[in-house]
Amino acid sequence: xxxxxxxxxxxxxxxxxxxxxxxxxxxxxxxxxxxxxxxxxxxxxxxxxxxxxxxxxxxxxxxxxxxxxxxxxxxxxxxxxxxxxxxxxxxxxxxxxxxxxxxxxxxxxxxxxxxxxxxxxxxxxxxxxxxxxxxxxxxxxxxxxxxxxxxxxxxxxxxxxxxxxxxxxxxxxxxxxxxxxxxxxxxxxxxxxxxxxxxxxxxxxxxxxxxxxxxxxxxxxxxxxxxxxxxxxxxxxxxxxxxxxxxxxxxxxxxxxxxxxxxxxxxxxxxxxxxxxxxxxxxxxxxxxxxxxxxxxxxxxxxxxxxxxxxxxxxxxxxxxxxxxxxxxxxxxxxxxxxxxxxxxxxxxxxxxx
Length: 354
What we know:
With 354 residues, the chain is mostly helical. The protein has 13 helices and four strands.
């Protein structure tokens, strides 16, 4: 009674079509849309590979190109020890999934190159079909595609035999000068291959919304001669601080108004230089585009006016002063001297009687 029930899993079981098996595993297959790896059943259901070798092969297939998969590197990622991982790699190597070879680099260093094949049986298949002997092929066992009856051909200039599509000719009327190295009957020429009319489904879905247009390059309110000269000098001096930022004269001419907009907003040249030369990508292929992006996105706002920085005047509160009662000498708040509330109430009946 204390076993937790996965309600989502039980709800998915009720939505499966058809009767469920009374015993054995029941699959709930949810289609992957991202971050998945295709694994063949020849590996997942291999009769002789151990479970560790199968799991290690699946993990290696999911890694990107160039990832280190040595014994020590894999042992640092998995709870299994180096001996178990080395034994699993030897199993994969014995069955053709893995190949390790020691090669010498041009600098004389010897390294181990590891190659993993997700389907080693495909490498054993012949790459090219051998030419058939000169014999009559047997009747095909599969239904031939229906070809519409051609109309009487119109006279046309002769074309090369390799480029002209030919209708199928019975074997008993083939000419003796037909090429002997033609493809077998099960490999039809490209012109006679049945066309697949399945609609093309792109693997990457289109974006849900159009991308917003990029903001324009900033410009100063008034591009004076002093601002243009300072901006041009700052852009031409960037290569002294970062050798990747080599700009052409045309690039400097286009980016100078943006730097002038920074200078117009009282930005120090050292601040602009630090913003444009810090954390550059490696390698930097388009320096002008990077500077244009940073000058547009990181543009600081204008400095506020000194009057805007002053604290707002707080409203003055009117405080009623303390007064000393003329009758009981008790302190009370009132704008003018006099009696407190109790003394005024006590004197009111007497004044009324008089």
